[in-house]
Amino acid sequence: METSFLLAKINMLMTSDHSSVVSMNLFVALLCACIVVGHLLEEYRWMNESITALAIGLCTGVVILLTTQGKSSRLMVFSEDLFFIYLLPPIIFNAGFQVKKKQFFRNFMTIMLFGAIGTLISFGIISLGAVHIFQKMNIGPLEMRDYLAIGAILSATDSVCTLQVLNQDETPLLYSLVFGEGVVNDAASVVLFNAIKSFDITHINSRIALEFMGNFLYLFILSTMLGVLAGLLSAYIVKKLYFGRHSTDREVALMILMAYLSYMLAEFFYLSAILTVFFCGIVMSHYTWHNVTESSRVTTKHVFATLSFVAEIFIFLYVGMDALDIEKWGVVSNSPGKSIKVSSILLGLVLIGRAAFVFPLSFLSNLTRKSKYEKIDLKQQVTIWWAGLMRGAVSMALAYNQFTRSDAKLRGNAFMITSTITVVLFSTVVFGLLTKPLVRILLPSTKYFASTTSSEPSSPKSFTQPLLSNGHDLETHQNGKSILRPSSLRKLLSTPSHTVHHYWRKFDDAFMRPVFGGRGFVPFIPCSPTDQDDHQWL
Amino acid sequence: METSFLLAKINMLMTSDHSSVVSMNLFVALLCACIVVGHLLEEYRWMNESITALAIGLCTGVVILLTTQGKSSRLMVFSEDLFFIYLLPPIIFNAGFQVKKKQFFRNFMTIMLFGAIGTLISFGIISLGAVHIFQKMNIGPLEMRDYLAIGAILSATDSVCTLQVLNQDETPLLYSLVFGEGVVNDAASVVLFNAIKSFDITHINSRIALEFMGNFLYLFILSTMLGVLAGLLSAYIVKKLYFGRHSTDREVALMILMAYLSYMLAEFFYLSAILTVFFCGIVMSHYTWHNVTESSRVTTKHVFATLSFVAEIFIFLYVGMDALDIEKWGVVSNSPGKSIKVSSILLGLVLIGRAAFVFPLSFLSNLTRKSKYEKIDLKQQVTIWWAGLMRGAVSMALAYNQFTRSDAKLRGNAFMITSTITVVLFSTVVFGLLTKPLVRILLPSTKYFASTTSSEPSSPKSFTQPLLSNGHDLETHQNGKSILRPSSLRKLLSTPSHTVHHYWRKFDDAFMRPVFGGRGFVPFIPCSPTDQDDHQWL
């Protein structure tokens, strides 16, 4: 048979020097397939690109498994470097670049509450549950450190998947809350994970807890500052030298390189690179993006989105392919019942751990919000709880880091890795599939918005978008309609809690924009009503 | 001192696990520096980005050398994979994407003559010269194979550097000849190099020569076909599924991935990947590019240019840094006089080898050209000879491949590697610096063109460009001016030698465009004069 010959040839080549070329070919071809299939399935509201990529990855894994007679199911060894150095930066940077800044900063305190305190609560519940249940189950030798690690690993929300299931234009509040939480959560997870590895956690006391808090604050503030500085530097350079005069390509290259430099510098200083590149994206979209030529704007907007899109697909394709890796399943295949039990328990703990902080913290957050429209109602709380349940590639990478350094053949380690994979696959596929319908059922008012926004997702920074939004906003205001979101936005703007934003705008216009550029190069003139309206959406 | 402490820290880190992060940081920062400095030096007509990058790379090499007390001068080990798998594809694809197709295909036979026969002549002269001179010089044990390899290595024109010193808009004929030659030349070099490694070349007879010819033709035709097929497939998919309906990012991602896939497939089948991706770029700009949305067009145009730009700077930065690597110079430093002698002899052979085919083959090519304006005059021949003298990263990569596999400490091998580096540096810096002024002195008529074209270099495929060119063209025609280039173009179009192009256009409009799309989705209507005029520039 033709195919079997071809597969045998591929098999032969995979063990030779040529193997990297073969696997890259297959990977690139599979990426193309994912894009085409994802496009064809776009009409079905249940599907999204992640699940398509996961499914294609799983199928490919099965094919490779059969071809190699059960020896291997993957084309490359999962490398943390590949993930953290090449795939994650474009995704997070793009999220910062395209996030609705106003929405994000308005909910800043709630996001911090969810991201920092919430992660701690979730971590505590999962770790405690794992200690109590697994110690009775005889799943192999696991230290206290391992139980704490699994808590930290499964507290890391998958911001990549969140980006796919929630739409910034449809549900701006939820998007900013859940995604913002995911970003802060990452910093918390990194601190937690490093703390577990380095601190002596057998006897936790108040000193260690304080040290831990200090560590988190230090990490958070320094990472943010680095990102902001990198963004401002890029804005200043582009404004001062005016690259567009000679070539658009230089501007685009400089923006990409500076963004990447901020990420790598954060890695260099052992900071949270994800936080850094996120804030770098925000600053770049606020200043640098307005300083470049028009074609650079179009290019950067789409380039960052494309890079992020490809990186996302790559991750899910890889996770799907890697899930079948036979070595890891070998140890646990003797006791399939126990394996399923462990996975279900962990999944249950994830569900409880998230519920345990979303609802109480939402209640707390609501206490500070005076307007009725501002409050996070129960339906929204359920959506926040649900949309943050997905676990993704970050969890997988951390699990590999923790449970393969020591002998991977150990029963306990094997159980932890396979359970993590099961939780990742199950949560991504099942929760991911159900999120879109759930949002539509719980929050039907968003339909109106879905129809008014353009077909391009997550591109609020297009030139026409702010104008369009403004027009629409004014219209509904004049007609006196009481649609939930715009009117609540208007209310929000009039409340005193937004004095911080008011002062920021004053400061921005007086000191920042003259130096770093920004919309239209010129400082903001407060007497122009159009400009002011425009400003609200910035 | 602050800096010495920092450098000591960097030094310490470079030997640790953190080293890859450090070197990436430095590399990205240096890339940014190159872009900024290159921008600032743009006004000086002698400089170009390659030389800036080379200089910065050399300076960094010196700094690292001093910091590490002469142990190392580079941040990464030169990797052929990095060069051939990541850096070269975007450069060559972009060249195909932005090349003036009409100009390229009109000179196709001349390009083939230069690229295939010319490389053979150059290879023969350099190899023979090396055998005769070096055997008397006692520079260590070198086999016949090594002499032939040095001939093949130094026959590889650096198409990357050519792109930088020649301007497509200023000197379209020379650009297409020299650059096209560089691309074909690559295929010839690959064949030559592989032939030297596998054939028994001690007794060359007619059978081997024939086999060699057949091998080259096979490689050339298959590589071209693969590239054309990949391009057509992408055009068909984009046209059929119309991705822009859902998202621009999908289109951009698919174009990038398909182009890269063509390159990797060619590598997989041991073809000339450079030829493949070059033709893929040509087909994509002819069909696919016209099928996508407007924002995708702007994005892809600039993205390909930016990627190519960054990859070029990266290569020169790296070559500059690597040139100082102390290990290689250690062996030859005992006999500096001999080292300089070997390098000068090789440089002289390169000069003679190129002269030996440019002038005779130009004469041959002129015999087939009837019009006086078509002929390649002596000044142009000199420019072609000069502009193709630069040797670059391809030569370095091949030299590493040949002379480090066996023991690098061997005297002969060390001489060959250091001489190759010297030739590369000298030719890039000296010949590169002199090319721009030389072109201005020898071909002053191009000044007029330089002023009329837009400030964006190498972007002939912009929407407005064809219209602008047409307008300008029509104007000069009406005014009856006799400027060299446009009038010769007009003459060329009326000569019978372009019947091939005429039939291709007919075929394109009747069969290809209805299936694969292309400008405006609609088939070409021959009765419209504007459209026809437009067509000439396609």
Automatic annotation (TrEMBL), chains A, B:
It comes from the Eukaryota. GO terms for biological process: potassium ion transmembrane transport; regulation of intracellular pH; sodium ion import across plasma membrane. Residues 452-480 are annotated as: Disordered. The keyword Membrane applies. It is found in: Membrane. One of its GO terms (cellular component) is plasma membrane. Residues 452-462 have a biased composition (Low complexity). The keyword Kinase does not apply. Residues 29-440 form the Cation/H+ exchanger transmembrane domain. Keywords: Antiport, Ion transport, Membrane, Potassium, Potassium transport, Sodium, Sodium transport, Transmembrane, Transmembrane helix, Transport. PANTHER family: SODIUM/HYDROGEN EXCHANGER, SODIUM_HYDROGEN EXCHANGER 3. This is Sodium/hydrogen exchanger.
